[in-house]
Amino acid sequence: MTAEVLPRLAVGERVAGLEISGAWLVDPTSGREGPADIVVSDGAVEAVAWLDGADADGIGPDGIVVAPGLTDLHAHFREPGNEDAETVASGCAAAAHGGFTTVCLMPNTDPPLDEPGVLGRVLAAASASGSPVRVLAYGCVSARRAGEQLAALGELADAGVAGFSDDGSPTRSAAVFRSALAYAASLGLPIVEHAEDLPMTEGAEASDGLVATILGLRGSPASAEAVAVARALAILAEVAVDEPAARLHLTHLSTRAALDLVRRARAAGLPVTCDVTPHHLALTDEWIAGSRRWAWDGAEDRSAAPYDPSLRVNPPLRSRDDAAACLEALLDGTVDAIATDHAPHTAVDKHVEFGLAANGISGIETTLGLVLAAVDAGRLPLLRAIKALTVGPAGVLGAHAGRRPGLVVGEPADLVVFDRSDRWTVTPATLLSRGKNSPLLGLEVPGRVLLTVVGGRLAYVAE
Amino acid sequence: MSERLEAPSDPEHSPEGEPSPEPVAWRHRHLLDVDALSKDELELVMRTADEMRDVLRRPIPRVPALRGRSMTILFYEASTRTRVSFEVAAKNLSADVVNISAATSSITKGESLVDTVRTVEALGADLLVLRHPVAGAPYLAANLFGGSVLNAGDGWHAHPTQALLDLYTMRSRLPGGTVADRKVVILGDVLHSRVARSNIWSLTAAGADLWLCGPPPLLRGFDAWARRGAAAGRRFTVTSSVTEALRDADVVMALRIQRERMTGGLLPSLREYAARYGLTSERLALARPGALVMHPGPMNEGVEIAPDVAAGAQSAITDQVTNGVAIRMAVLHLLAGSGA
Amino acid sequence: MIGRQIMTADEIRRATIRISHEIVEKHAGTEGLALVGIQRRGVPLAHRLAAAIREHEAVELPVGALDITFYRDDLSTVAQQPLVKGTDLPFDLNGRTIVLVDDVLYTGRTIRAAMDALVDFGRPQAIRLAVLVDRGHRELPIRADHVGKNVPTSREEVVRVHLAEVDDVDGVDIERAVPEPALAGRE
After folding, report:
1. What is d(CA A268, CA A255) in angstroms, rounded to the nearest whole number?
2. N vs C: which end of chain C shows fewer Cβ within 10 Å?
3. Is C112 part of the contact surface with chain B (CB cutoff 8 Å)?
4. C9-74+84-155: which CATH topology?
């Protein structure tokens, strides 16, 4: 197997010529994967040749892999308002390092993205960054994310938001949520809901469970997520009767109970989709107690010191069973997408006592690695993984996704090339995000992104 | 006889071909919780505390073991008795002591724990004794601090020296000098208690028949721990029945119940708690005759413990205080010798 | 391990008897004398000396035991030592002549620590020192009043005293230390 990649381009430059011979190509749209040669010329895909017979010999999915560029449905770039933690520019660099070519940003900036002017600032920052990564954004559901009144949904839609969310928080008022769902339906956009019952989780530091009990941490019960999901689904069921175009997307689900509710709702035909984060697939609350084993690896481990504040996240890391439920739901199609919930923070906000640390994991660069760990362990087929990172998110974004994910001859190249036989160590230096709050610091993750191309232009190339 | 020669630690008392058992070495640079202590290490602490009790009985209860060492006491929660206990322990070992309490320092101006620990280290402290309201804070300090960190209580999580002095007290008062197979009951607000959590580790390691008892909202999550513990050989029983728990008990440890629990919606009232779970002499009579009564302090007399029980003949509460100094002297001595 | 015996059981016995006579001779009697053995092997030696003195003087001298763990000037070694059963001084030190008893005298630091410990218990009139083996290499200005055997050694060598009360046999060996492999479990 040989793969030749041409570096020496600057980020943002059109890829004049690129030849990849004998890599493993994954096409999630058609469901086909196998050895292939790919040629890119003047930014566009010139040829895709599937190999067979002797040419295909020795080329497996465990070496160089080519896939459509990944799409992230849920990331936080902290501009405007908290640029020390991340800017649109640094976020795009991080995204490209992670293999992502499209990112959809959450509106909990400061000021929040509740009117078109703020969207304008974000998009201007994106084009000023020089990165070709496609930046989309959600608008707030409620004005100032306060949950009392609707934000300027129509204006935001006209300005080009990809949907609406009050993420960081649930939509506080059920009545507002109901109105937003109906209104957004008329705009052809989804509501992306962070499902959490706030009174139940007040002061919570970790998931309710054995680890929280032993470590003396205030617990956040699984039912707090299930209760909020049930509320959202009940309201969706009613709204969808009058507004068939209504769409609900539940983001970062983390519990078996909530996923079971979604499974039943989908079976009943409700227009609901959902995503899970890579950390809810691969990590558990045991990590807070010092384990460094993947969720599917049953061994007891206390190799790290407990209370690492980089593990404080909302929804919190859950039990092994909940992580398994996320994986099962991904495999049976209940979950459409893996979304990163990339949440960078400064050291001032994170390098403090666990119970005082801000919630969030800087994860866009390690997402592929965690997903590949599951693939390596035989828990997740490679094709399903790539689908969840490309076709799945594109389906949720609908028209905003742009073209269908895939390497289509004649279209601008939108792809990621990564080497499954390689690994990299996560350190503050190797992370391009300003947010170094990753629980994987000092650990090796499998797979290494070699090249990310967005719309025919270079977004990232490995040294 | 081992081929290996230990480094001539004390040249005059060089390796003597040890027919006696392998000495237990204290390997811990910090004491953040009791979880990590093996049975042998618990024994080592107990025996060292015996020595320290002997020192405390001298006319001048002082030894120069920690002379030249500097200990900083950093308390983010008010506590007179524990702080003084540590201070006395350190001074009895001839260490220099610096006291920082949250109200009086730059901590109230918003200086972070990280910065405070760095400052303390820069000022030359070898030992840091930390009490903090947030679980896990001592681990953060231990990552930063070059010397030894001793956890004097972190949120609901752990209070290792309390568990050690509780174990020491029980052994010193129980017939046979052991807690193995003795029924020890921890009664009260287990959920919010770092004393309970640490005692679970030490008492199960020492082989006690441990029972946790309280109203159900204050036992939340401990059933699951008990089930998991049984699998790991650390057995204990959880019940909300006071009569079940106290019957034939050898030791009853009452925990403080705080008013704040009412506002959290966890309990109807302190009066109801006292009526149903307070350790009165009637309830104590369910236990074995001569059963020990213990309390980590400070006490709400009339709520979790009746005044006559607290002051009665079976009460070992003042022993706990005295033993606390001996245990802290023992722990400081072992920590100071661990990483030099 | 290359070792050789430098004192037999008989030699230990004779040295002990000789020292017991010397102690009484130096003190010109037994009035006010007390023996304090330094843990660990100084203690049985002190008892043997007291037994010998009882034999030839028909006097029962008080014997105490001293644990110097808390008086060391080198804390890093604490972690490796078993905590021997402590200090027992069942008599008043004030005004007495204390003879400290130890098995091996080397740098002198143990004796310094022992003297510090003793004065915390009272004010002896005088402190003397009796050792079974003096191996040289003093780091402090300390000398023994009574010595069983002077043994010149090099720093790489280790002197091992065996006493029946602790080790089932009597004897003194000298060994050349071999480089030690990393101790398991030590940080």
Report:
1. 20
2. C
3. no
4. Rossmann fold (3.40.50)
